Structures are given as C-alpha cells and as structure tokens.
Amino acid sequence: MIENPKRYTITAALPYTNGPIHIGHLAGVYVPSDIYARYLRLQGKDVAFICGSDEHGVAISMKAKKEGITPQQVIDKYDGIIRKSFMDFGISFDNYSRTSAKIHHETASAFFRKLYENGDFVEEVTEQLFDEQAQQFLADRFVMGTCPKCGNEEAYGDQCEKCGSTLNATDLINPKSTITGTTPVKKETKHWFLPLNRYEAFLREWILEGHKNDWKPNVYGQVKSWVDGGLEPRAVTRDLDWGIDVPVEGAEGKKLYVWFDAPIGYISSTKEWAAKEGKDWEPYWKDADTKLVHFIGKDNIVFHCIIFPVMLKAEGSYILPDNVPGNEFLNLEGNKLSTSKNWAVWLHEYLIDFPDKQDVLRYALTANAPETKDNDFTWKDFQARNNNELAAIYGNFINRVVVLTNKYYDGIVPQPNEFTEVDEQTLAELKAYPAVISSSIERYRFREALGELMNVARLGNKYLADEEPWKMVKTDPERVKTQMYVALQIATALGILSEPFLPFTAKKMVTILKNDLISWEKVSKSSELVKPGHKIGQAEILFAQIDDAEIQKQIDKLEATKTANKMENKTVEPQKETATFEDFSKLDLRVGTILEAEKMPKANKLLVLKVDTGMDVRTIVSGIAEHFSPEEVVGKRVTVLVNLAPRALRGVESQGMILMTNNAEGKLVFVNPDADGVDNGAMIS
Q1: How confident is residue 667, by pLDDT bands cut at 50, 70 and 90?
Q2: Where does 468-623 have alpha helices with state H?
Q3: Nearest to 54, CA basis, from 91, 88, 89, 13
Q4: 277 backbone dihedrals φ, ψ, rounded to 5°
Q5: Global confidence as pTM
Q6: Residues 624, 658: contact at Cβ < 8 Å?
Q7: Are residues 488 and 412 in contact, defined by beta-carbon separation less than 8 angstroms?
Q8: Pairing of strands 375-377, 589-599
Q9: Phi and psi at residue 378, in whole multiples of 5°?
Q10: CB 375 within 8 A of CB 494
Q11: How many Å is the Cα radius of gyration of the chain?
Q12: Which helix (H) or strand (E) holds 662?
C-alpha cells in the first residue's frame, strides 16, 4: 500500500454503450468510486477521477445487428444517455471520454506497437470458430454453448455468467452462432497473444504475496484461483469489423481485442483531461507517488488484476494499481439484473420517476451495497430506507435544529453558556466521527462508512431527545442556548460529512445553514464549526415520505416486464400438416358440462368424467389428474370432441375427448365455452 501519496488516479469501469446505466452498475462501481473521489477532494487531495464509454465491444456489434443500425449509431445514442444520466445523478468524474475518440485510438495503437516491437507478443495461427452461413469469424460474444466447468447451457464464448469462469469460445460444448443459430466450424486465422504465463512469478509476488492483507477477499480469491489454475497466452486481437485496427503489417481486417483496448481508455481519458486542465498526464500514471485505484464489478476482476497489470508491466513505464476494490452483483427483486431482458431499474428512468431524489437512491444502494456478497434491491426496502432512515432520522434531526433556532433566536446561532458533561461528551464524540468514517472509506467499506454517518444524525437526535430544549426553554432559557449551539455544531458536521455520500443533500444543507463546506479535517480539529452570531436560513424538507402508490407503480412496471419476457420466450408448437375443410368438417365438437369426476384407480394422470353433451351423458377418460382434482372440474363447461372413436383405457371405455391447452406456466387450461346463452350440445364450427 502507498502511504501518503501525492496524487490519486481513480478509475471507474468503462460502461458498454450498448444500453443505459442501471442500478447494478451504480451499486457495483459508480457510487462507491464517487464516494471515494469526493471524500479525497474534501481532504484537499489531488484527484483525477477517470471514466468513459467503452465503444468497441462485441456487445455493440450485436446491438447494431439486432436493431438494424450501424455501430456508430448505437454508441452515439447510448453515450448521450449514459453521459447525461451520470451528470444528473451527480457522479463527479473529472473526465468522461469515449474509446471512439481519436486520442484513444492513437494511445491504444501506440501501446500495442511498443509491446509488439519489444517482442512481448506471441504470433500464432490458431483455429477459431467460423460461421459459414454468415461468412465471418465469431467473436466471443457471438458464440453461446455449454460451459465446460458448470454445465450452464447459456454460457458465452468469453465468460460463463453462471459460474464466473473466463473461457475461450473454443472451450464451449455444443457451440452455436448467435448470428445465425448454426453450429460454427473451426477455421485457421492469425492472431497476437499476450503470454500471461511469462508473468506468473510477477503476479504471485505482486498480488498473492504483496496484497494478501489489503485486497478484498473476493478479488484476491478469484486472482489466486486463476493463477493457481495455470496462466496461458491470451489473444489481444480479433477478427472483427468494428474496433481499433491492429497497427502492424499482416493484420489487415483485424481489430484490437476490446479487453486490450478498453483499460487503455483510462490512460487516454486522463490524457484528454490533462490537456483541458493544462496539466501533465504522466505523473498520474507513471509516478511512484501516485495511488492508482480501479473500481470494478466482479465480472471484470481478471481483466483488471491480471491482464491489464501484465500489459502495464510489459510496457515498463506505468505504475500498477494499489487496489482493485471489486464488488459482487446486485440483484433486483430476487432475480439477476439483465439488460437484454429489461430486468433493471434504469437510471435515466429513475431520475424522471423520482425527481430530486438522487440521494435516496445513492443511500439505498450504498446501504445495501454488494461489497462481500451478492445483494438484492427491492422497492420496499428502498421505500423503508427513505421513510424510516433518511426522513425519520437524518431529516428529522436537521428539521428540528433549524426550526427551533429560527423560533427561539430568529435563525441566529446563540452564544453558549457553560458546557455540561453531556455537552462536552457529545462534542468529543462528534469530533471522533471523521476518523471513524475515514477508516471505513479508506478500506473501501462504504456501507460501513454510511452507517457511521447516520450515527452522527442519531447522535444529534439522541442529544435533543435527552435535553428536550422545547421543554427547557420555559424554565431555563440560558441552558437552551448551549443546547442549540451544540445541536448546530452537530448539524454542520453532518452536512460536511454527508458530501461524499449525499452530495445533493449536502448542497441543500449549505443553503439551509448558510455555511460553506469546510474541509473534512476541520470537523475533527475545529472547536467551533459554526460561530455564535451566524444567521442560518429556513427549514426545508430534505427527504419527503415516499408513499405506497409510488412504490407499487415501480413494482407493476417490473411485473409488466416479467410478463413480456414470458410472452417473448414462450414456445409455440409448429403448425401441423395442412387439413382440408372436409377433414375439419368430420370433427363433431360440442359444448358440454362435467357432471361427475373421480380418479381412475392406480392411475396418477387419469380422471373418469361423466359429461352432459346435450345429446347424452357419456363417460370420458381424461389425462388431467395431475393438474385438477375431481372436485375442481365438476360443473366445468367444456369443449368435447364427441365423434372420436371409443377407446378402452384401463377397462373403462372413453367416448370422446375434452379439449385442453397450456398456459405460460405449462398448466393445463380448459378450452372453455363459458359465455351466456351457450347451451350444452351447441355445435362448434
């Protein structure tokens, strides 16, 4: 770990521009990285908080093919949505770039050429999967098949999303092209490989020994598993028509692999930022006094902890990351988030549905962050976090302090009198909180840090509840001046310490308390954060209650998505061979009513029915016993094929057939003529 670095380079995983940002992205990467960057700035640190759109992934080509547009149209559309969402949500990037930018193409090409000229690549002709119908080599994400490690039948060619294993497309069992659905063949092609196996000793020393005590167990464990499993050369080029050209002779028609070019996007984005700010970019990537931290989700651990560090090591002039605090996954209402299935809470839609409630979502996602294990976001929990914590604890404390100060002293901070032991103990406890919160943040325990922030609000609430200035003002108004002075110190500290977590609320607190954000350090060192005689503003509601109707609207939206997915994924039996009108006219379909029903002895699937067909009452044996009890079907109106040749089933002659179908869950449903005025015996034509 780097002690007392001169500067910080903080990177947040580049989002794919094949869709908008959802809460899984926010909880896993962007909220924690923003908390960290804001916290460091409050301490007066030199920070470069870097991100940008990842625009060369195969996911972009897939999206373009699906929508019938060009990859450029895809990236322009989603880059705009993502960029605006981040800005409106208050993610405080110092620079947000694009991997389609000229500076990135130049930076990535130069990086590749240097490794190529140094002999750091292995050039090989290998067999890759080729779609003969589409006449193209298949990049990883254009192949699906069975994972050789866990048996998941929907694994992609680069990764199994069920077990998390990193794969090559040729590893898949029963591979299929996602373009045409055909089985690909293997065909020879030339590519350049990064020989990870050459760097095993370096990785063991740097990570497995050097970072065993300070990296998160989930990150360290995945890296160790990968290294112990044996490292192999990894292709850094692909046969694609979208991406950065491989800048060497003999590589026509080939592009840089997205996982080679994307992390270099951090460097090119830093260059772009430095040029705008009139700074030198190199110290942020090449000075040993710089602390480099990558914020990522767990699906990116291998790329940021093995492949990118090997690239940096091979290049030779770059620093390595001090930490890679990767988070686990956030689920939604018990199901895995999915962009393709629209099972998500999209940030740009949230900002419309819940205007001015950015901090409520930031709070809910941080309080429930998947830091050590997968966690679940539910709308009911979101509502409870707002109503029972932000409004009832935080908002309630600030509102009481501001209202009472305006009521008793026209908004002017009173001069305190002699402090009691309770006052001194409360102020001493307040001064301890910055160090406690800092300790959690610097160990990347943001959920824990947020809990300590809320304890500051609880400290204030407890102080007011115990001291009861609204009662004391009638008997000892001088004592109340001290009480309100102490409460105002707590309120001011809370506003400052909230800035990394709840920036919009912290800004409102500046307006309410008429006090600029003081540095983090002053909360613990200053004996007086707000002075007597200072005039504060009027109270305003920081966190309004969220009612059940607003939450139900969101739940209904998800239920509609679930229904749409079922309809989209339902399988329909293919049409049978053509029947003539004469064939159909032979069928005698009648409306009937089931009069009696009983289970067929020693047969789990069969019910023996007595059915009134309007012409007669006859026995029909039906294989519906696993779906209906005898009691359920008595009295049911049904459609009956009455002229089906009789058939003996377990000694009972069945004289017809009841028409059935299946619903989306696979349950049998009667083809039901339950309309008024339809009598038994009515012919169906």
Answers
A1: confident
A2: 469-475, 477-498, 503-513, 520-525, 548-569, 581-585
A3: 13
A4: -90, -5
A5: 0.82
A6: yes
A7: no
A8: unpaired
A9: -130, 150
A10: no
A11: 33
A12: strand 660-662
The pLDDT value recorded for residue 564 is 77
Whether residue 130 contacts residue 238, with contact meaning beta carbons closer than 8 Å, is answered with no
Give the Cα separation of 235 and 260 in Å (integer).
9
pLDDT in tens, 470-516: 999 999 999 999 999 999 999 999 999 999 999 999 999 999 999 88
Element (H, E) at 145: strand 143-146
User: What is residue 163's DSSP assignment?
Assistant: T
Looking at 603-660, list the stretches that DSSP marks H as alpha helix, in order from N- to C-terminal side.
630-633
Quickly state the pLDDT bin for 139 (edges 50, 70, 90).
confident
| pLDDT score, position 602 | 85
Q: Could you give phi then psi for residue 638, rounded to 5 degrees?
A: -140, 165
From residue 43, alpha-carbon distances to 89, 296, 497, 514 in Å are: 22, 24, 11, 21
**173-177 vs 143-146, strand pairing mode:** antiparallel
Question: What are 218-230's pLDDT values in tens digits?
Answer: 999 999 999 999 9
Please name the residue that has the structure tokens 């199901």: 335
pLDDT tier at 677, thresholds 50, 70, 90:
low
Contact 682, 614 (CB under 8 A): yes
Cβ–Cβ < 8 Å for 310, 317? no
Q: Which residues of 20-31 are buried (b: 16+ CB within 10 A; e: fewer)?
A: bbbbbbbbbbbb
Phi and psi at 374, nearest 5°, equal: -60, 140
Strands 330-332 and 375-377: parallel
Check residue 359 and give its pLDDT. Answer: 98
Residue 187 burial by Cβ neighbours in a 10 Å radius (0-12, 13-18, 19+): middle
Rounded-to-integer distance, Cα 187 and Cα 184, Å: 9
**Whether 338 contacts 344, CB under 8 Å:** yes
The number of beta carbons lying within 10 Å of the beta carbon of residue 43 is 13
Is the sign of the CA dihedral 347, 353, 356, 361 positive or negative?
A: negative
Helices marked H in 68-208 — which ranges?
71-89, 102-117, 200-203
- Nearest-angstrom CA–CA distance, 314 and 257: 17
First to last CA, the chain: 81
pLDDT beyond 60 at 572? no
| Separation in Å, CA 3 to CA 290, 436, 463, 534, 589 | 10, 18, 37, 39, 85
Task: Give the contacts of 595 (CB within 8 A, at least 6 positions apart).
Answer: 610, 611, 612, 617, 634
Q: Using one digit for the tens of pLDDT, what is the confidence trace for 175-211?
A: 999 888 899 999 999 999 999 999 999 999 999 999 9
Q: How many CB atoms lie within 10 A of CB 420?
A: 14
Q: Give yes or no for residue 10 having a pLDDT over 80.
A: yes
Helix (H, G, I), strand (E, B) or coil at 252: coil
From 39-48, 277-286, 334-343, 451-460, the region with the lowest mean pLDDT = 334-343
How far, in Å, CA of 54 to CA of 261, rounded?
A: 9
